[in-house]
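Researcher: Here's a chain I'd like modeled. Treat it as a single chain, no partners, no ligands.
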Amino acid sequence: MQPAKPRIDILALPETTGSVLYCLYEILDSADSMWTTLTGADTHIEGFDVRIASPIKGVFTCIGKIPIMPQASLEDLPSGSIIIAPDFLLGDDFQTTEFWQASAEWIRDQHARGSTICSVCTGAALLAETGLLNDREATTHWAGAELLQSAYPEVKWKPDLIFSCAIGDESIITTGGASSWMELCLYLIKRFFGYDAAARTAKIYLLGDRSDGQLPFTGPSPLKDHDDAVIRECQSWIADHYDAPQPVSRMIKKSGLAERTFKRRFTSATGMKPVAYVQTIRVEEAKQLLETTHLSVEEISAAVGYEDSAFFRRLFKRTAGVSPAKYRQKYQAIRNLGKPLAHLA
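Model: Modeled as a single isolated chain. Structure tokens:
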């Protein structure tokens, strides 16, 4: 019997903005499964059980007249889930409502029963209403910080932060502006399924800094299906020996084919010339080493089969769109999510 999926309940109220609500739902509901869909690589991760929950029964509209159909009412939900309060549109005359109070009481009770409580942007106001943020550091949208400081002075508001959780206590998490749903999604995926799943999600949905284009997010292309057994055997060999010297010559020798015949059949079977195929394999392995180790670029260059690190740097930038150092920095931000003092600002 498989263990139950971690459950996420996203709270919806009339003050909710639909963009954040549905972005949270889309990314978390498809956590890692979209990687399998688009690349063909099965990650064997079941993902989350995500639902939209509300104290309101039946369809209602949120900010922008966007319809919301709750999948569960608050009283029907068991304890032990991850609860997310998305952003809420708060005016200067912000006053709590009947639904607001009911939601706050429910969140307070769920936290006491072991649930993890999260907020995005001004969703921190609802967490503050519960009293759970008293004497804690918390973040929110910078434009709402003054209002919330006045309404909830017991909270140590830090609007300069994008992500905040207490050291040693990850049961309450707050994130900054509306787009900080990205950091929260990646953090939750990393926390429950590991860094690799979070990195794959960032690559599939292009989450994070996109100023360098799409190349830094690209993963390995799906392997072309073919029935050339000789070439398949060579592909299997290079997957384990990508760092070998003169890999194309060694594959030719292994195949028993004439050089021109091998290159023609390899290109026909894989859609790539042998040299380009080897370079792709090596760069993908280098990406993994940059993401998961502290090896220097020179050490990584040698590890994937390039003695000339200058050539490796040029090849990597041409393929990945950024230098090895910048690539490492981009994905190190995901690895640091939730670590003490590793707030993304």
